[in-house]
Amino acid sequence: MTNRSTATRRTVRRPGALLLAAALAAPLLAGCGSGGAAAGTELKAPTPATRPAVDPAQVAATAKATDSFGLDLLHALTARPEDAGRNLVVSPNGLATVLAMLLPGARGATAEELTKALHTDLDPKRYALATGALNRPVPTADGLTLRQSDEVWAQQGLAVSPDYLAAIAAAFGAGVHTTDFGKDPEGSRKAVNAAVEKATEGRIKDLFAPNAISASTRMVLTDALYLKAKWATAFKPAHTADRPFHKLDGSTPSVPLMSRTGEFRYAEGSGGIVGEPWQAVELPYAGGTVVMDLIVPAQGGFEAFAKGLDQPQLDRILGALAEQPVDLQLPRFHFDTSNELTSALRSLGVRTVFDGADLSGITKEPLAVSTVVQKATIEVDEEGTVAAAGSGVGMAAAAPAPQQQAQLHIDRPFLFLIRDTSGGRPLFLGQVTDPQAR
After folding, report:
1. For the domain 17-40+56-230+335-397, what is the CATH code?
2. Sign of the alpha-carbon torsion through 348, 274, 276, 376
């Protein structure tokens, strides 16, 4: 493998996309050997001048669908009482993207379950194209780096459908590596992980844990998402002070709370589907296209609010945000989340992809998804945010208040959402119940 990832890196400074020509895809995969199992071979083909046009309405609908999918995922991962109170960060966009890469190869019940879980009524190829269009770069800005890259790793000699390769190339510009999972699964695992680590500036290490890739693995799909963004207006470190934070268990440890007073998009309310009082504020990053939304239920209401939050309620909250003066306090936080998502996806109705899968649109060799993983990290401080996520799928043989100063001291558990307002992409979603936990 070359030192540079074969994936298109969707950055604020976009390199040219690598697209595979359908007519060349099958001979390349069947005929190119790897230069060692861990090294892989980069398969190159002519690059079309343009990516296919996508209906903007389909892109907007896909952004909404990804919001809904993200909330479903958040609920699935916090369904157990022992998980409801933990810090959590996931990337709805990252996971939806790797599933969108899988979907054009799915058939029958496997495709139906995936499309239902992803909240889309588009056919698989149109959904992949809409997701790829949604993921295209935000405008260049100082203080904002947003990169996303997708890769396909295939077993040397595997006869992958040219139609499938053409579909994911058109949608994502995804590069393809061949490697030898059968002879050196550990070397292949390290190569896949190294590519994700490089794409996330070292923030996501070991996406696939030992033994997650085995000698029976035939294909791996990955998405890597990296965000480094400065606040449009930074918090002053001198204004950060230790103050009580009210945890779910009733304890109130002192944690560093950043502090700033200024004009923010703010809302508060109660009732509706969730029925619990809440406050919300939006913090813009440099460049004006990426924001962090903080949603803070009233003291004692976090668990009921988080459990009941759905897409219509989220839309109402975000739609109510309006400029007004706010006295804001926000804890610094930094934590990582790692999830094997097979159980969560099963709970959302995605089942046959793991058992009795029909992935015949990828290859005639019977395949089933053996693992779905995601690692994510987020760090928020006075200067801004650094967040990253790696998502992977392994296949083996067979989500206006009055104009007076509001007060929002975030001294209790809260939810956060980082989104690209230019297209509606939900980049990161999570909850903070203990700012000091790592």
Report:
1. 3.30.497.10
2. positive
User: Pseudo-torsion of CA 266, 271, 276, 280, nearest 10°?
Assistant: -10
Beta strand ranges found along 98-236 (DSSP E): 144-155, 175-179, 217-230
Pairing label, strands 254-269, 278-284: antiparallel
d(CA 25, CA 20): 6
Distance CA 178, CA 103 (A): 21
- Read off the pLDDT of residues 21-48 as tens digits, 9 standing for 90 and up: 333 343 334 333 333 344 444 443 333 4
- 307-316, pLDDT tens digit by residue? 989 999 999 9
Residue the block writes with tokens 């996303």: 148
Q: Would you say 425 and 134 are in contact if contact means Cβ atoms under 8 Å apart?
A: yes
Considering the segment(s) 237-332+400-432 as one domain, its CATH architecture is Roll (2.30)
- Could you tell me where in the chain the CATH 3.30.497.10 domains are found? 17-40+56-230+335-397
Q: Name which of 103, 217, 122, 104 is nearest 162 in CA terms.
A: 104
